[in-house]
Amino acid sequence: MLGKMWPRWAGWPESLAMRKLAAACEVFSCTQLTHQRPAFGINSVEDGGRTVSVHEEVADQTPFCTLLHFCKETNAPQPRILVVAPMSGHFATLLRGTVSTLLRDHDVYITDWHNARDVALSDGRFGFDEYVAHLIRFIEEIGPGTHLLAVCQPTVAALVAVSLMAAEKHPAQPSSMTLMAGPIDTRINPTAVNHLAKSKPIDWFEKNLVSTVPGRYAGSQRLVYPGFLQLTAFMNMNLERHMKAFQNLYNYLVEGEDEKADTIKNFYAEYFAMSDLAAEFYLETVQSVFQDHALPLGEMQALGRTIEPAAIRRTALFTVEGEKDDICAVGQTVAAQDMCSGIRPYMKSHHVQTGVGHYGVFNGRRWDNEIYPRLRDFIHSHHQQ
């Protein structure tokens, strides 16, 4: 790696001092922010003990989102699962590891949200209602028997969408709904994120955190919550951890530990890829979810209706939390279990994963080895052909 930066033929001695300088330059280069969406890059997956190829297809598309289908070269029918990615300053590719694991045993779709900066103002608004409408549309597109998996922020919208479908006795109600590390009821064990959201009136957020897209972008004049502000907030929450990661990266580069260095570099290449949020969606989410607690208080409105999670009867419910989650603390997601009182007990399950924080709920070794097997078994036990 460093040899590419300081080739022997250039006459530079491969001394420790030069390796340290090269490492410092490379660490600095890794801190660049970008609005470029990374690729998922999932070309193959292990399925039933053999390697099968994977390619992406667009199953549906709106100006604000692409319903992306990961097609496997296999004829074996598997449960179809819609992964609802967060719209929180990053691209859906942040869930690459989640998708890759799910592909072992499932037919996977994901909401690939577009950068609001690049959506023309003429394409209209995008608020909480539009988000929920997208989920219902995509569930309809995939069809009856779909399994829904929402990660973090969209757990609320997912629960709202399924509640609406249940109230209407929609024929495409999902077979199961998995809510992972989400802010269903942020009154429970409030975190720093929750305190921040309640520390200012909603007008303050609109005045200080919303910007207008400049004229050089397709979304010119659209109001957005810039992704770099969300990224800054997340970074400041765990600044010590990020500083330690970059120190480790520097040491690995100096020591020639290329594989370990690449792991850190790949993570931050994804982490620093930012996506702006439509201002309407951001402000409505802050107010209804984090300030007013509308859903747990029975006051949530969406698409002109009051949301009643108790209407859900046909969709099984699995909730997952991380013991050390400092974004959505233990208790906030499992609150959905009590709200969904119409679901029979044998169709409900909850899991708290010890030893993991927020991202460990849906990525990493414990997701692969401990959480995913439980999720897979739950989905397959409630799968309807």
Automatic annotation (TrEMBL):
Residues 181-382 form the PHB de-polymerase C-terminal domain. It comes from the Bacteria. It holds the Pfam family PHB_depo_C. InterPro entries: AB_hydrolase_fold, PHA/PHB_synthase, PHB_depo_C, PHB_depoly_PhaZ. PANTHER family: BLR0908 PROTEIN (PTHR36837:SF4), POLY(3-HYDROXYALKANOATE) POLYMERASE SUBUNIT PHAC (PTHR36837). This is Poly-beta-hydroxyalkanoate depolymerase. It comes from Collimonas arenae.
